[in-house]
Amino acid sequence: MPHRDGFQNSLSFTISLCLVFTIAVAAARFWIRRGSYGIDDAIIAFGTVTSLVRTGLNYSALQLGMGQPAQSFSTGEALTNLNDLSFASMIMFLVSLYTTKCATIAFLSRVTSSTEWTLLYHVFSGIIGFVGLSSVLLATVGCTASSGFYWNVYGNLHSCPAQGIRWQVITGLDVCTEVLILALPVHLVWNLHMRRTKKIMLTAAFCIRIPVLLLSIGRSMSVAELQQPQIDVGLQSALVAIWMDVELAIALAASTISALKTFTENFNIGFGLGFTRGRLEQRYDMSERTRPAAKHSEKDEAIVAVQFEVCDKSSMSC
User: Fold this and answer.
1) DSSP states along 223-260
2) At 266, is the secondary structure helix, strand, or coil?
3) 65 is in which domain, residue-wise?
4) Residue pLDDT, tens place only, 278-302
5) CA within 20 to 30 Å of 40's CA: 161, 181, 240, 273, which one?
6) 133 lies in a domain?
7) Membrane-spanning regions, if any (predicted)?
8) What residues does 276 pair with on adjacent strands?
């Protein structure tokens, strides 16, 4: 890798690594879920495309000096072009991030047998979509290309007012939606008749989104540094971009891993195995809501295991 000033080498490495990781995850999902695609796959495909668009924008921004000290692009056409690329890249980040959240809820709606909860998941998905759109508007309204470099938060006090506060609110909304997504699978799994250890293992399939929440907080702290007058905007904005790239890559992977058959079938209880090639065989069994309550026992667990059994050969039916 050629020597570059500032954080350009680190930024270039992160962008490339996240690109390879994202493509690998997308390819794995495409192959493993072939023949049983659903709305959640379509949503995550859109999120992957927007992520790749963001990657292209970041590579272009690198060529214009992104990651270098601010004095290297403080004026002129290069600054205008860099600002346009950074602005568009930031929008693609928010769109793709919230797409992964909607994809996770869409997956949950596919695998619950309760009509009531399916409808509720759709409502949650609409709320998260609205929050995502609100975040984009919050980050962009009143901030134009003529405002100067977008990430010059301290310098944009008048041309893009309250930018630091805006990003604190954006992070707060991000964290709240992540907590909601982490809580929903817990409720789904805890209504099943099975051992507590198995419930914990199933919940862990969705807890892989916890790093996304932590990365969101780290990104917010990095953006907050841009409010300090002594901070080099060129270098600090590169760190913000790195936080965003890693967060987005992990979010895409988390939405995929929790939905992959090869991940869930290891639990040997049928969780997530309702998707056979070519058709949806069956959904999760919400024991508390779809049948009369029964005392938890080894016999109950055996019955549930039989109910969850799924055929994986197209020539056979369950």
Assistant:
1) HHHTTSTTS-HHHHHHHHHHHHHHHHHHHHHHHHHTT-
2) helix
3) 7-267
4) 334 444 333 333 343 334 444 444 3
5) 240
6) yes
7) 12-32, 44-65, 85-108, 120-153, 165-188, 200-218, 238-260
8) 279
